[in-house]
Amino acid sequence: MGMTYARFPKMLLVMVMILAFAMVPETGLAKKKKKKKGKKAVAAEVAKPEDPTVIKAREHYSKAKSLYDSKQYAEALVEFQGAYDLKPHPSVLKSIAECQLQTGNIQGSIATFEKYLADPAAPKKPEIEARLVEIKGMMASLEITSLPDGAGVMVDGTVTDKITPTTLDLVPGDHELALNIDGYEPIVKQITLAAGEKGSIEVDFSSEGAMTDEDPLLIDPFADEAEGDEGDEGVTVENESDGPPTAFWIAAAVAGVGLVSGTVFGTMALGDEKDYKDSPDTSIKESGERSAIIADVSFGVAAAAAIAGVVILLTNKDDETETDTAKSRFDIVPIATGDTVGVSTAITF
Question: What is the rounded CA–CA span in Å between residue 343 and residue 29?
Fold first, then answer.
């Protein structure tokens, strides 16, 4: 035999080690293969269907790029906008702004680029800032003045919130400018501006404009009512009563004065009476009597004026004209005969 008894134990040991290694389940090779197989299984379990909105937005964007490359900018703008509406992303805003620029909407392009820069997630902002400066340089500016100042400004049929003097940023090309101010017919000017041009225009209404038939500032809105003429709609405007007639207010004033005067002199008379009781004196008595007479006359005048005012107020008619009211009059005549003091009133309508 080729194998000796001395080598047999060594060979047996090697065969046992090989058999043991093959029977161990977690050998290095088996472990690696098992881990690899496990990752695939986990990936299959974690995978979910893609969001339909994202799929649709990607379709719009892909179509928009093809249209832009073929210089169909208006159609590309619609598709880019559709993609952004479904899945807003600053990079899409950049594409929208470029389409707006290619279609001549410079102002819209500027606004979109500014929106891009305002987005915190937008990349490459220095590059876009430089692009924005370049696009703004494409705009034209127009300085507008007028004599007199304060004219309203309309550009291409659109009313602006500007009044002269002012400066407008306009896209290059032809524009129709209309200025209007009270008292004059609007003045229309045609102007053509090149990219980056700074133009100016001045309008003198006194020499170029035609005055309107009527200046609204000189119209008296109450003239027809005061004269009782017919209004704009053919309805006769009647004079309306402004309140109590003048005679009533005169009577009220006289009554007030009489009441105050009677109160003052009555108080003086009472004071003289008290002083006379404490120290009888002829001058104090005469002063008290005189004050009492004046107080009585004042109260009488006040009472007569109050009565006359009430009568005037009750007999006044709502349809009286101002001329008729002025004819209403009352007279108050004080009477003093001997020891008698009083008043006489006369009312005239």
Answer: 139
